[in-house]
Design a protein that fits this description.
368 residues, 10 helices, LANO_0G15148g1_1, binds flavin-adenine dinucleotide, D-amino-acid oxidase activity, D-amino_acid_oxidase_CS, nine-stranded mixed β-sheet
């Protein structure tokens, strides 16, 4: 029986913990989640999970088969949760998504993977001030997740399955986990988001460069919209910032969030008022339904980006004062896709953990 520590209580850590308990309940003696921030905390813009949109609209390119697999698994899970456990905070919504024609259509439309696909008519593109010669659009069944509801739902399930939780100050380096728990765990899951690079700086200095924040900025409005809207590349005449786009996701409890931007490498936590004005201008332009809105909050948060994409892999680190090595399975660096690929990533992590458990239980070679 194994002692498992999950480091991080964002959507990656919580989903990993839940999938581990669901799949390896008979092999885990104790699973504890250690984390400096928890669902319900809103003080840290580098604790990303509370601030997400969060919808399902895969960013995977057609050749990124691993990411496509993760996103597919999660879409199917969200579909199941929305139908059978609405208290999870996962709600089905149609998504109207518009792209430049020259960029083609996303894999999930080409593969007809998502439900209820319809092309957006020229008439609607004109209504949304998008030139039908340049843009095309699709409508399909997507999901919106209310982050705090969903993460608390995951946490409740974890505790029901015997998972323990503990708030700790931020660990300085990954091997500090041993002194914090007072033993060498059989397995550590590293789900520390945008802080993973700093945590690994001694063991794997290159990760300090690889993990990068991708700052986002969101406005929260009182007005409702019965569907989600995304415009990936904004028309030039709107004079948006580099990597600015339009995302409008309704919230299950009413109102919408409006974004946004991908500002890579920016660690700051300040709201840019000019950008807020631009986000509202873009919203008015493409969604005349929301021509007049009332903003009640605006905020920024950091997506946990990583060069090369999410890292789901096993590392073995030497420990100074112990003969054992520290087995760490990583699940960090998912950028702007942490919810929409959460189940797929966690199931992939379970595949690696299964091998770790199997190898651990293999009898050691003995001399005859
Ligand atoms: C504006 C915005 C919009 C987004 N929209 C979407 C969307 O529509 N769909 C989607 O799928 N995703 C979206 N995302 C991305 C999504 O929010 C992230 O991918 C996801 O939240 C990352 O979760 P995580 O668990 O990996 O990291 P985090 O949520 O940051 O969790 C990291 C955890 O590790 C803990 N931790 C970190 N360092 C330490 C340490 N040294 N010691 C102890 N504990 C530590 C933290 O306290 C925290 O609990 C959006 C993000 C933003 C900012």
């Amino acid at each position: 029986m194994s002692k498992v520590v999950v480091l991080g209580a964002g959507v990656s850590g919580l989903t990993s913990a839940l999938c581990l308990l669901e799949n390896f309940g008979d092999r885990i003696a104790n699973l504890s989640i250690l984390s400096s921030e928890w669902p319900g905390d809103y003080h840290a813009h580098d604790f990303t999970s509370p601030w997400a949109g969060a919808n399902w609209a895969s960013f995977a390119k057609k050749h990124e088969v691993d990411q496509i697999r993760r996103d597919k698994i999660s879409y199917l899970k969200f579909e199941q949760l929305a139908a059978s456990e609405p208290e999870s905070g996962v709600k089905p919504y149609k998504l109207k998504s518009c792209f430049l024609k020259k960029e083609g259509l996303p894999w999930y439309i080409e593969q007809k993977f998502v439900r209820e696909i319809k092309m957006i008519t020229e008439e609607e593109l004109n209504y949304r001030n998008l030139d039908p010669n340049l843009y095309h659009g699709v409508e399909f069944l997507s999901f919106t997740v209310t982050p705090n509801v969903y993460n608390n739902y995951l946490l409740a399930k974890i505790r029901k399955l015997g998972g323990e939780v503990r708030r700790v100050p931020r660990l300085d380096v990954i091997t500090d986990v041993v002194s914090v728990v007072g033993l060498v765990p059989d397995l550590v899951v590293n789900a520390t988001g945008v802080n993973a690079g700093k945590l690994l700086r001694e063991e794997e200095p290159k990760e300090l460069q690889n993990v990068v924040p991708i700052k986002g900025q969101i406005l929260q409005i009182f007005e409702d919209l019965p569907y989600q809207v995304m415009v990936e590349t904004l028309p030039k005449e709107l004079k948006g910032r580099p990597n600015q786009f339009l995302n409008i996701f309704p919230r299950a409890e009413g109102g919408c969030i409006v974004g946004g931007i991908f500002a890579k490498g920016d660690w700051s936590n300040t709201v840019d008022e000019d950008l807020s004005k631009s986000i509202l201008k873009v919203c008015r332009n493409h969604v005349p339904e929301l021509r007049s809105v009332t903003t009640y909050n605006s905020y920024v948060a950091l997506r946990p980006g990583r060069e090369g994409g999410v890292r789901i892999a096993l590392s073995k680190y030497r420990l100074k004062n112990f003969p054992e090595t520290l087995n760490v399975v990583h699940n960090y660096g998912i950028g702007g896709a942490g919810y929409q690929s959460s189940y797929g990533s966690a199931m992939e992590l379970c595949g690696i953990v299964s091998e770790v458990f199997t190898n651990r239980n293999k009898p050691k070679c003995s001399k005859l």
